[in-house]
Specification:
The structure holds two protein chains of two kinds.
Chain A: E1 13-16, H1 22-31, E2 36-39, H2 54-61, E3 68-70, H3 75-78, H4 111-115, H5 130-144, H6 159-170, E4 176-177, H7 216-222, E5 226-229, E6 233-239, E7 245-251, E8 257-261, E9 264-267, H8 270-280, E10 305-312, E11 328-329, E12 345-349, H9 354-360, H10 368-375, E13 380-387, E14 396-403, E15 409-414, H11 419-437, E16 443-447, E17 482-484, H12 499-518
Parallel strand pairs in A: 1-2, 1-9, 2-5, 3-15, 9-17
Antiparallel strand pairs in A: 4-11, 6-7, 7-8, 10-13, 10-16, 11-12, 12-13, 14-15
Helix pairs in contact in A: 1-7, 1-12, 5-12, 6-11
Chain B: E1 9-10, E2 26-27, E3 32-34, E4 41-43, H1 49-62, H2 70-77, H3 83-102, H4 114-123, H5 128-140
Antiparallel strand pairs in B: 1-4, 2-3, 3-4
The chains are: A alpha/beta, B mainly alpha.
């Protein structure tokens, strides 16, 4: 049943990466009868393999290949070799994600028009809008089984949510609920309902959370049109004299260099690996890397303005019990410059287990100020800030001096906060602490950002070729049969967790690619 | 991330000969340190008992949890008793003791108040020795499943069917 394509078969679409972008695109194309080879750097792990232990799971799933960092962001100091907490496995970071699935607000597709020019930022309007995306969002919500969309009920609130909700309401917030989550509140699509186990970040052992690893990937394989090659580490995309891509070189699971021919190549390796691959594919014809005539490949890296607020109460909360992120306050997501910044932010419930709390509460911190916080771990509640950060040309993925295990230059990730990001984060810290103080918190902690999970931009979508890397379909401006299929496409980041939008864009892109292939245009 | 080696940590019913060492730990003769109540002892091979006692005190001062017994800190620093770390430990402990003596104390472990020891540590906070020990403790101490109940943390719940019927929303004081 599972397809096996020849390395010399130049009729296939090669997709690099199998997460929210690549994994969904692979299945959607396979469903339409398009032959697909998906190359995945990681191995295959399914619910029975997931480990509900933070460090062990991290070792199993996280992308731990070398990366380097620079810039003034605190991650570069605290986690210099780990700028992102993302997954290297079939299904990509859909294994790790928390499931929050919210649409962009209408105005966020038009950030430049809505916010106006912001000094130091490279804001741009997306070449698509809310009306165009609405039907694709609906398909994505149906695919993922998003709660509070369609006729799907919300999840019940856990202890951490109940504290969060009470504080939010005390402050007068109105849009407070258990979220629109790609975690089943009832059996859906052959997957069971959430059992309130916690460990959403470590892979859902019940399969209640949507992950491409056990939905789209096997569904695509069942068509006979999709072959997923695991532990295939892509080195370079090749092209011909006409400037069209022709195939992909990769190291297979045994470390041997292979070359898969292709009619179309779609890159979905996350916002670090996607630009890295285009840059590592430089050639005589494209000395600055593929699809980089604009010099925009790698630029405008966005990671959301994040941070967390944890607080201690005089009685137990046990925040780790139940769905990790089923709780949201959306009142601050609006664009309201009277707060001192453009764009907005979401507040979402979050918890970490004791081992990760020790690592992330105040990285590098020690002594009693730190340990007395952990002493009251059982009485802690937590939330995460997700806000729109400003794209900046200098926030950028470039090739590092450091080489990976195959001798390929790794990604260096440079990031500096924009003043707008800092103003937003400080506002969110104040609001977050006020929420908990309204419920009687005795101590609150404005916790710095973790290694990034929302990696966006770096190959952004733009109307004009000189402003970005790809067009409204994710097709690169320079090379017609080369597509960007992951969060790298994001023109701006919006305030929302990005996965739903990545999935919606992938479904839409599959439709476009299949149509263009039928028409003989690519 | 690393599994910590439990070998060498043994329970002792009685250790008759306790050599003096300030603080909670006792150097009990060649190759051992032990708790004053003799609840446990730690055998060292590559580094000296005095050096291990200093590391243990340092671990407690970096991440002090008064409700966490010494044996868990001992497990967390046990890995430094190795040929690979011998030189780093010797140099680091010597510099801590020198700093203590310069401040008028007999040694690091002979510095009676935590507050005074913390000042000595703050002065060497940026050294590779301090950073190695501190960073190692983040996993070496907090990733010991045996200490989780002390903090109320319950660990995995999948094997018990999650919390859907076991209190995911049982908060009763709001």
């Amino acid at each position: 049943m599972v397809a096996k394509f020849d390395l010399n078969d130049d009729s296939v679409v090669v997709i690099i990466g199998t997460g929210a972008g690549g994994g969904v695109l692979a299945n959607e194309l396979a469903q339409k009868g398009v032959k697909v080879v998906a190359l995945e750097a990681g191995g295959r792990y399914l619910p029975e393999d997931y480990i509900n232990d933070e460090w062990e799971s991290f070792t199993q799933l996280a992308w731990l290949d070398a990366r380097t960092t620079s810039g003034s962001w605190r991650v570069a100091k605290d986690f210099s070799g780990l700028p992102a907490w993302i997954v290297k496995a079939v299904g990509g970071t859909t294994t790790h994600w928390a499931g929050a699935s919210i649409r962009f607000q209408d105005h966020e597709w038009k950030a430049l028009t809505t916010y106006g020019k912001v000094e130091g930022a490279t804001l741009l309007d997306w070449p698509i809008d809310a009306a165009e995306m609405a039907p694709w969002y609906e398909k994505a919500e149906t695919k993922l089984g998003v709660t509070r969309t369609g006729d799907r009920a919300g999840l019940p609130g856990n202890n951490n949510y109940r504290v969060f909700e009470k504080g939010a309401k005390a402050l007068g917030y109105k849009e407070v609920h258990t979220g629109r989550m790609a975690i089943n509140s009832a059996d859906y699509d052959g997957r069971m309902a959430c059992q309130q186990t916690g460990f959403c970040f470590q892979g859902c052992k019940w399969g209640a959370k949507w992950s491409a690893a056990y939905t789209d990937i096997p569904a695509g394989e069942a068509t006979g049109n999709l072959e997923v090659r695991e532990r295939a580490h892509v080195a370079r995309i090749l092209h011909n004299d006409a400037g069209k891509v022709t195939g992909v070189e990769y190291f297979d699971k045994d470390g041997n260099l292979q070359m898969q021919k292709a009619r179309i190549v779609c890159v979905a390796g996350n916002s670090f690996e996607t630009p890295r691959l285009l840059l590592n594919s430089a050639s005589g014809m494209f000395p600055n890397g593929l699809a980089n005539s604009s010099d925009q490949v790698g630029r405008n890296y966005m990671r959301h303005t994040t941070g967390s607020v944890y607080a201690i109460f005089d009685r137990p909360v046990r925040m780790w019990r139940g769905t990790t992120m089923a709780g949201i306050i959306q009142d601050e997501a609006r664009h309201d410059p009277s707060r001192g910044f453009v764009g907005g932010y979401e507040l979402e419930t979050l918890s970490l287990g004791l081992p990760f709390m020790a690592a992330f509460l105040n990285p590098g911190g020690w002594g009693r100020s730190f340990t007395t916080a952990l002493d009251h771990y059982e009485n802690m509640a937590g939330m995460w800030i997700v806000g729109e950060d400003m794209p900046q040309a200098t926030n950028r993925v470039t090739l590092s001096e450091t080489k990976d295990q195959f001798g390929l230059p790794v990604a260096n990730v440079h990031f500096d906060d924009h003043p707008n990001d800092i103003a937003m984060r400080n506002h969110a810290y104040q609001q977050g602490m006020a929420i908990y103080e309204a419920v009687g918190a005795t101590r609150a902690f404005p916790t710095p950002p973790y290694p990034s999970t929302h990696n966006l931009g770096t190959c952004r979508m733009s109307e004009k070729p000189e402003d970005g890397v790809c067009n409204r379909w994710g097709q690169t401006h320079d090379i017609a049969n080369l597509f960007i299929s992951d969060g790298s496409q994001f023109t701006t980041g919006a305030a929302e967790n990005p996965t739903l939008t990545i999935v919606a864009l992938a479904i839409r892109q599959a439709d476009h690619i299949a149509r263009e292939m039928s028409a003989g245009n690519i | 991330m690393t599994k910590h080696d439990l070998r060498g940590l043994t329970r002792r019913q009685l250790l008759s000969r306790s050599l003096s060492a300030a603080g909670a730990l006792a150097v009990t003769g060649a190759g051992f340190i032990a708790a004053p109540d003799a609840a446990w002892a730690l055998e060292v091979t590559a580094i000296t008992p005095e050096q291990m006692a200093t590391l243990l005190q340092m671990a407690r001062d970096i991440y002090p949890h008064d409700q966490v017994p010494d044996r868990f800190y001992a497990i967390a620093v046990k890995g430094y008793d190795s040929e690979d770390h011998k030189a780093m430990v010797a140099e680091g402990v010597a510099s801590l003791d020198a700093a203590a003596q310069a401040a008028g104390f007999p040694s690091y472990v002979g510095t009676g108040w935590e507050e005074d020891r913390v000042k000595l540590l703050q002065a060497m906070e940026t050294t590779p020795f301090f950073q190695t020990v501190r960073a190692g403790l983040v996993t070496g101490l907090y990733n010991q499943k045996e200490i989780w109940p002390i903090f109320g943390y319950e660990g995995e719940s999948f094997s018990k069917g999650g919390y859907i019927e076991r209190g995911f929303n049982d908060i009763d004081w709001l």
